[in-house]
Amino acid sequence: MDKIVTNWLDAIANEKLDADDVERSLRYAKDLEQGLAKVRTYAQGVSIFGSARFPEDNKWCKLAEQLGIMLAQNGHAVITGGGPSIMQAANKGCYEAGGRSIGLNIELPHEQHINPYVTDSVEFRYFFARKVMLTFSSKVYVFFPGGFGTLDEFSEILILMQEGKMPKMPMFLIGKSFWKPLDKFFESRMQKNGTIKASDRKIYRITDDITEVVKAANKIGHPSIHDNIYNNYSSSQSHI
After folding, report:
1. pTM > 0.85
2. Amino acid 161: pLDDT
């Protein structure tokens, strides 16, 4: 590892990067390194995304908590961004059901603090590194209603699957009333104008039934810690 780091630093020096850029690249690497070190300690689970702004008694939070319970009961780790609202609800359900409840947190000046229902946590400085780990550590992806952050995470994973940079894994959008208008936009604007194909809209499934998530995770099963799905995906294809 020391030799790899030395070679990498030599390569950076050859590019004639200034000191600030070198320091920046090391911060990027540190975020990725600590993330990989953590996600390699548990088998791939189910990543749950959603708003950090709903109150605890919101119907989506209650549904996320129930999903966390069901996943834990079926032996699946629950992975979230570690924050409040949807994330906390999913972690809480999993934690109280005795499951592996992971929080991959992000440093933010407001609204984001690690919730108390995680068994394992990592704090990231950069969104991109956190998104890589939320993707890499999962076999199923679940998106509850959310804001720009949730939409960003959904779009990132969607395009990676669309372009073959990662295998097409189950992706669920929970809440037909919330997500159907977005799907309609994809159909009436993007698909109609030829910027996406009809098949692209089949990468994700919009549903109100959280049991579909559990069934998808059960179908994939419980790969061992050493059998990450992305290890077996062509390195020439993989972006993760």
Report:
1. yes
2. 95
Q: Which of 104, 101, 148, 110 is nearest to 129 (CA)?
A: 104
Q: Where are the beta strands (DSSP E) in the chain?
A: 45-49, 78-80, 101-106, 120-124, 138-143, 171-174, 205-207
Residues 99/177, Cβ–Cβ less than 8 Å: no
Quote the tokens at residue 225.
Answer: 């810690």
Q: Quote the percentage of the chain above a pLDDT of 90.
A: 68
> pLDDT over 70 for what percent of the chain?
87
3-state SS class at 155: helix
Which token pair is 100? 């592996």
The sign of the torsion formed by the CA atoms of 50, 149, 240, 23 equals: negative
Answer whether residue 233 shows pLDDT above 80: no
- Convert 7-67 into a string of H (helix), E (strand) and C (coil): HHHHHHHHCCCCHHHHHHHHHHHHHHHHHHHHHCCCCCEEEEECCCCCCCCCHHHHHHHHH
What does the alpha-carbon distance between residue 69 and residue 217 come to, in Å, rounded to a whole number? 14
Q: What is the CA radius of gyration of the chain?
A: 19
Return all residues near 22 (Cβ < 8 A) that are at least 6 apart. 9, 12, 13
Q: Is the pLDDT of residue 111 over 60?
A: no
Tokens of 46: 């189910």
Which positions ≥6 away from 122 have C-beta within 8 Å? 34, 35, 38, 103, 104, 105, 133
